[in-house]
Amino acid sequence: GSRVELRCEAEGRPTPLLSWLRDSEVGQEEPTAVLSVTLPHAAPHDGALYVCVAENPHGAHNRSAAMRVA
Question: Which is it for the CA torsion 1, 44, 21, 50, positive or negative?
Fold first, then answer.
């Protein structure tokens, strides 16, 4: 039931497109330097593999976090 925030930051020129994926489905996508996913009251069904992808014409990088909620 606690609040959880997953924050992704990236720098680049041009500004990268940041995307949050949850179990391979795109949840949020914006051309920005910071993008967060906020779960106000985390519950067991929120448990998933969350992946942040940053991409621009020069390339792409990603980071992931596996979250389990008891």
Answer: positive
Q: Which two tokens stand for residue 67?
A: 């979250």
| Global pTM value | 0.87
Mean pLDDT of the chain: 94
Here the CATH number for the domain that contains residue 50 is 2.60.40.10
Q: How many domains is the chain built from?
A: 1
Residue 36 near residue 70, CB atoms below 8 Å: no
Q: What is the residue range of 23's domain?
A: 2-67
**Residues forming a β-bridge with 55:** 17, 60
Find the angle CA(14)-CA(54)-CA(61) to the nearest 5 degrees: 115
